[in-house]
Fold this sequence. Notes:
two-stranded antiparallel sheet; 15 helices; 2 strands
Amino acid sequence: MGRTVSLVLLALLAVAPQLGLGIYPLHLMIMAMLWGFIYTSWALMGRLGLVSLGHGAFFGIGAYTVVMMWNHFGLPPLAGAAVAVVVALAVAFIIGYPCFRFKIVGHYFALVTLALAEVVRLMIVALRDQTGGSLGVTPKPGLVDGATGSIWALQFSNKLVWFYVVLVCWLFALYVWHRVDRSMSRLALQAISEEEDAAASIGINVTRTKLGIAMLSAAMTAIGGVLYAQYQLYVNPETVSGIGISLQMVFGAIAGGMFVMLGPTVGAVFLLLLSEGLRILVGNQFHGLDLLIYGALLVFFIIYMPKGILGEFLHRFGRKTS
């Protein structure tokens, strides 16, 4: 029954753009699925006790690598995405291995990742001749006159194309979540999150298990950065690698429910509607107001709704039907 409902909802989502939606609603749907992909990537490790406050580093690596490869070397974005994933994996290994090997966990691990995001942001700003510095940079146009899309340049003037591209990536993230849930790594990571020494005593390779999920999460977040850069056609160090974007990932996953497969996506929809509502009601009159509200709501969710929006709904619904 549950699978049938899921397939019906997926079919409705797939045909929704064909029903005459305007450009703005279509844009919101694309962004909701894109952020859902990114938040799901973060939640893969966040829900298992590996709380990263610096995933903006991998997001920025993905976004800037694909743009720099295209602008300076003419490497097509699909190839640039492969480079971005390799770089993200390397950085995740360099940071993750010593942390997990020497049992840097909890708050200390979160602080290390927070510092990583700031280091990446400062490097982007420092390399202003190549990256555009704090002003950001746009990918070179890849569409010839009259063309509506280019797979080579991964640029499409029709948002409908982007809708289906992002839809496939979002479904891929859900598939990865499902595979991780069904794997032995999930059980191992759950045991590690509860008692690391006890898990090691029964033969679980703690370092390798943690490193595997961290590198998977980093690679997927980098892919999210690639998609974001190519869709928005503009990247800026603050919007793709700043501390704000890292905390946004944490808040989105927690708000929606990071222990439920669709929780991060619900969090993405919630945050998107919140940010758009603030933009319409307040505009840009109060700089930093969105971060203030995000922080206050994050405290609220942690204290009063630790299961998140979807997690709390499923909990209450299950209790009523039982």
